[in-house]
Structures are given as structure tokens and as C-alpha cells.
Amino acid sequence: MKTIVFDIGETLVRDDRHWAAWADWLGVPPHTVSALVGAAVAQGRDGADALRILRPGMDVAEAYQARAAAGRREHLDETDLYPDVRPALAELRSLGMRVVVAGDRTARAGELLRALDLPADLVVTSEEWGVSKPDREFFARVLEVSGAAPEDTLYVGDHPADDLFPAKSSGLRTAHIRRGPYGHWWADHPDVVETADWCVGSLTELPVLLGRAAAGRRKPYAVPEPPAPREEPALPARSAPPEPSAPPEPSAPTGPPALTGPSGEADPAPPSEPSELSEGHGCSEGSEGSEQLSPPEVPATSETSARSENPDPPGASRV
Q1: What distance in Å separates the CA atoms of residue 74 and residue 8, rounded to the nearest whole number?
Q2: Contacts from 135-140 at CB under 8 Å and sequence distance 24+?
Q3: pLDDT per position as a tens digit, 195-204
Q4: CA angle 195-199-205, nearest 5°?
Q5: Hey, is 60 helix, strand or coil?
């Protein structure tokens, strides 16, 4: 991987201040906005729909301009960054990767992020480009600034519909982070798991994972082949030792003459005693080469288990 591109909201930056500012502008408790945002997330809708529920028909872009005119523009500082942002970005750059920050934010947010002097080669926002996610043109711009082929560019984000799916369809590699409402709610959805090349819970996992992936593709050092084994002359086959000759059987002792019956014929011999050894049952338990007898198999009973259905995939993207 040559270039790593990061989303902004709920990937690098917490959205707490963002939604709290809207709650203050609309005159409602922050908890109300947070709850409505959570409901929109669970339904796969745009998070800004929470504001439209509070003010039906509201144009969010126009409302933001009204906020800015009233001197209540958005604000970002070091406390808004997740604690793993700086160490993760710095380590990726130390591995020789280009680091880009590109997400759906205002031009004002871009200025504030650049003022934080993040360990990134480029910080840019959708308003500065004039195109927002999930538009394919946004990811075409991502590839322009990436300086690498699509398969060597990784886009990292929390939102399936805005980050993961459009980036993948544009040919980029993708990493989903379990962070923020969208990241947590949709992390285990089959479409997310199938689409993401990597799923992480922290940005600091990326340098380790990408380092391993690079090592797996790296061509191993050539190891000289060992010399062919020297052929040894074949040893003559050993002749089998002669079998010892059996000792001569002792001659049967001469017994008394057979008794004869009244007819003068010898009486028949009595039946022989049964042998004390039975063929096939002379191996004791634990003897080498013996077979252990298994108890008869009892047919197992099967149990049915309930299968759970996955929630519907996210169907809408956020602004």
C-alpha cells in the first residue's frame, strides 16, 4: 500500500461538538439531537435527517450559512481528535506511505484541520473540491491526489454508504473502522464485512496490518539450493539367516496294547480336550499393534437451532 486516505468525521474527529452546536442553534437539548441521529443511523438514513425531523423542510446548508453569519461557525481543536490519530498517521508516514485526509466537511473545517498541523501530506474537504461523498467524482479526486494506483490506495472510514461502498466500487482498497454511530451499528453487517479489506477498532492497528500485508507480498530473498546429495554405492542385499532346524520330535512312548471289544476291534479314542487359547483374542490391552474394541455407537440426536437474520444494509448516505 502506497497511500492511505482518511475520512474526517468519526474517523479522525469526534462529532460531539458538531451535533451539540446544531442542538444549541435549534434550541433543543443535545440528547434529543443525539437520539434522533442514532435513529437515523439505525435506519440507514442520512444523519442530517435528525435536523429535518426537528425542523421539517429545513435546508441544512442554508441553516449553516445562517449560523456562520450569526458568528456561530463550527470549531475544531486538538480536543476533537481521537487520541490515536497522531500516532497512527505519524507511523504510517514513517513506513514511507503518503497520508491524505479527505472527507465531507466545510472549507472552514479544512482550515481548522490544517491549522492543527497533522502528520499528513494533504488535508482537503468536500466543500473545497465542490463534490461530496458518495459521488464517484469525489473518489476520482481522491485518486488524483493519491499519487498511486487504485489498488495501492486505501480509504479508511466509518460510514458504509458514504465511505466503504463507493470507495470499493471506484477500485480503491477499503478499511472500515468501528467508531461512531455508523461504525458501531453496521460493523458486523455481511455487506460491510465482505466489502472491507480490513476491519479495525483503532487507527493504530493499521500500521501493523499494512506492514504485515506488505511483508506478505515482498519477494523473499533468494536462497541458494543445497547441493544434490552424493550417490552412495548400493549395499549388497543381506541374505536371510538360515532358519534353525527343528529338533527331532521325540518318539511316542509305547503304551499298553489297545483294548479290544468283544468283536476283536480296537475301541475308538476318546474325544480330544478343547484348546485353552482362542485365535484372535490373545492381545492384551495396551499391547503394541493391538486393536481396541470400540463400544457400539449410539445414534446421536440432532437439534435444530434458530437462525438470526441480518439487518438490512444501509440504504442512504449522509450529506
Answers
A1: 14
A2: 135/166, 136/166, 136/169, 136/170, 138/102, 138/166, 139/166, 139/167, 139/170, 139/172, 140/170
A3: 999 999 999 9
A4: 145
A5: helix
